[in-house]
Amino acid sequence: MLVVSKHLQWNFKFHAARKKEVEEAVRAGVLSQDEAKALLSRENFRPFLDDIERQCFVCRNKLKIPAVMWHGADAANRENLDLWFHPECVEGFAQRLMRDANEAKYGKEKADAILQTWKDDSAA
Fold first, then answer.
1. Which residues form the domain of 121?
2. CA end-to-end span of the chain, whole Å?
3. Virtual CA dihedral for 5, 53, 90, 88, nearest 10 degrees?
4. How many domains does the chain contain in total?
5. 31 and 63: one domain?
6. Contact residues for 91 (Cβ-Cβ < 8 A; gap 6+)
């Protein structure tokens, strides 16, 4: 699943603080009403949470939105499992995962050849 801002809750504190800053700038004459309206418009201001406090499964760096999330479950422990990825990390992970599945299905040589074809296609 591609996770974007609209999938997460509205960040009320951030929105209120930003709105207050803009209102103070208008009162001080730093911004016009039209400029303030533009700054708080949906096109320019999306006060959704964008810091999701997760790490990428591949590179372990902190994630921001957009991100990719796969949801599953650990049947033995009856726990939900979420795998989170940077969009740029998930493609290589998926290719390596499919390469391993192909090795089990076709053997190492064919799996390596298929992976190389995918890499060549992505580079093109």
1. 51-124
2. 26
3. 70
4. 2
5. no
6. 122
Closest CA to 2 of 95, 48, 71, 59: 71
Q: Give the Cα separation of 22 and 31 in Å (integer).
A: 8
pLDDT of residue 57: 92
Q: Are 25 and 1 contained in the same domain?
A: yes
- The yes-or-no verdict on residue 12 having pLDDT over 90 is no
* Dist CA 93 CA 105 (whole Å): 18
Residue 50's pLDDT is what? 56
For residues 63 and 84, the answer to whether their CB atoms sit within 8 Å is: yes
SS (H, E, C) 40-87: CCCCCCCCECCEEEEECCCCCCEEECCEEEEEEEECCCCEEEEEEECH
SS3 label, residue 29: coil
Task: Encode burial over 101-117: b for 16+ CB neighbours within 10 A, e otherwise.
Answer: ebbeeeeeeebeebbee
pTM: 0.54
